[in-house]
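Hey team,

Filing this mostly as a record. A colleague (T.K.) asked me to run one chain through the structure pipeline before their review meeting, and I want the input and output archived in the tracker in case anyone asks later how it was produced. No errors, nothing strange. Just documentation.

Input sequence:
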Amino acid sequence: MATILVVDDDIAIGDMEQTVLTKAGYEVIRAFSGTEAVQILMNDRPDLVLLDLMLPGLTGESVMARIKQSAGDIPVMVVSAKIDADSKVNMLLEGACDYMTKPFDTRELLARIRLRLMEQSRQALSGRIYTYSDIRLDDSSREVTVNGNPVKLTRTEYGILKILMESPETVVTKSSLIDRVSSANEDCTESSLKTHMSHLRNKLGGAGGKDYIESIWGIGFKMNSNLN
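Output structure:
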């Protein structure tokens, strides 16, 4: 369940947002001033912030600056009565992931929140670090090491290894592997998969002295669960 921090001094609007978000399955934290929002963010880490701009204490602009300084990866959606283009442009340039003006349609609010959370999830996954036995795959830098030694992989070999390491106990069928890898790497076909897999296994084995990938005859591949 995603947690959303609602920062708005208008109690009626905040109550409405909380009701809508709760019904949609989100957990809601409330802040009624900019100062309170900053205090909450010192102890809690919501998945998304709905931020009004005209707040008592610290302004919404100041809260945005604090968030970007201390927790820049938390998406912030501005929900404000300020409708001028300058306010919108400035906040987007300051790091807001979206800007909605009041009054708004709650269906649109929920749709935008869902999209922003999906984007955040994809970004988080793209920066994951996967480990299995002696292998470490850093998806943010696209670096692979075995026993701390860098292993140079082609784009296709990297894609194959990442898919297998995402679910190391699961057998990935050949057709699924081809479909997923070929969406980003056109050189992975049914006829070339065997070659790509052979090169990948040789590179990993040469660096770590083990056969890290297991062939499941007639089905596909998985990470070897019998490593010493």
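Quick notes for T.K.: The chain has eight helices and twelve strands. Residues 106-126 form the longest helix (21 residues).
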